Every structure is written in C-alpha cells, then in structure tokens.
C-alpha cells in the first residue's frame, strides 16, 4: 500500500514537471516566433534580387487588404501574406490602396508595392518622368549649374564696372 502511494506521488510529480517544461518550451517558441515576425515587419527583403521578374496583378474594389496580401503571395511577390498585411497596417498606406491593374516586380519591397498601389494615375506618371530624367544623367542639374555660372559672370562684370566707377569718382 505504501509503495502504491510512493509510485503514485512519483508519477504525479513527474507529470507536473513534464507539463511545466512543455509550457516553458511553448512560451519560448511563441516568443521566438513573435520576435521573428516583428523583426521581419521592419526588415523584410524582396523575394528576388534585382532585376527580378515583372508580375501583373489586378486589385478590385471588393478586395480587402488581407486579400491583396494573399494574392501577392500566390503571385510570388511576397513570402508571407500576413506579414504584408501587418506591414501595410503599420504604414501610412493603410486604407489607401486603390483598385487597378499594376505591374509589380519580385525585386520590390512591400513598401515599394504600397507606393505604387496607393498612387493616383497622375502621381505614377510624374514618378516615371522623374525616373526618366534621372536616367539621362541629371541634365536638369547641369542646366541649373550653367545658368548659375552665367548669372555669376554677369554680376561679376557689373561689380567690376561699379568698382571702376567708384575709383573714378574723387
């Protein structure tokens, strides 16, 4: 009878220790997953390195932001739809994605996709114009420098004339 109580007590304590260890290991795993997810929200890299591949996606007005994330995952543009959704909710673009057909690239970050899908049609055109100007070697900046040099030369000539006038006057 005494042995039964001792064995029962031993099994009971062993089971309690096993449950406590499982709870601790479970909490460590949960904490690790949450930390990794939170870290990835701010540091997630693109799916592919540049140049990547272009993918055309269609966003309809009835799609939720989470549905957009799922679609982008299916198209291979993001690795995790829930992560995309969390990034979107924490960004300034939450609730601002517009329906339309977009050409996105697998080398884009989620933020770059937000910018494209939240832009008005006019904003997209002006962005393309800016990129075209940048690709041509900053001709606008060179023109500005030339104008500045011309202005300074004219001012210098005017100052020289004034200085000469000042010397002639007693």
Give the strand line-up of the largest sheet: 1-2
State mean pLDDT (0 to 100 scale). Answer: 77
Number of strands: 2
Largest sheet: 2 strands, antiparallel
Output the structural class.
Answer: mainly alpha
Strand-residue proportion: 5-15%
Radius of gyration: 32 Å
Low-pLDDT stretches are: 124-158, 163-168
Percent helix range: 55-70%
Distance between the termini: 130 Å
Shape: elongated
Query: SSE order, as H and E?
Result: HEHHEHHH
How many alpha or pi helices?
Answer: 6
Structural description of this entry:
With 170 residues, the protein is mainly α. Helices cover 68% and strands 7% of the residues. It has helices spanning 2-43, 65-74, 81-90, 110-118, 121-135, 139-168, and strands spanning 54-59, 100-105. The longest helix has 42 residues, at 2-43. The protein is elongated, with a radius of gyration of 32 Å. The model is unreliable at 124-158 and 163-168 (pLDDT under 50).
Summed up, what is this model?
This protein is mainly α and 170 residues long. It is built from six helices and two strands. Helix 1 packs across helix 3 and helix 2 (65-74) crosses helix 3.
Which descriptors apply to this entry?
170 residues; mainly alpha; two-stranded antiparallel ribbon; elongated
């Amino acid at each position: 009878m005494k042995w039964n109580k001792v064995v029962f007590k031993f099994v009971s304590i062993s089971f309690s220790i096993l449950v406590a260890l499982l709870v601790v290991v479970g909490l460590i795993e949960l904490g690790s997953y949450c930390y990794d997810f939170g870290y990835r929200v701010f540091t997630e890299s693109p799916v592919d390195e540049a140049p990547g591949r272009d993918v055309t996606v269609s966003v309809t007005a009835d799609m939720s932001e989470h549905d957009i994330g799922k679609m982008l995952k299916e198209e291979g543009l993001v690795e995790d739809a829930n992560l995309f959704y969390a990034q979107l909710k924490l960004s300034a673009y939450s609730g601002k994605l517009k329906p339309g057909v977009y050409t996105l690239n697998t080398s884009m970050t989620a933020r770059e996709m937000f910018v494209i899908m939240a832009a008005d049609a006019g904003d997209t055109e002006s962005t393309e114009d800016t990129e075209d100007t940048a690709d041509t070697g900053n001709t606008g900046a060179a023109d500005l420098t030339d104008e500045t040099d011309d202005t300074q030369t004219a001012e210098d000539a005017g100052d020289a004339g004034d200085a000469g006038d000042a010397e002639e006057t007693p």
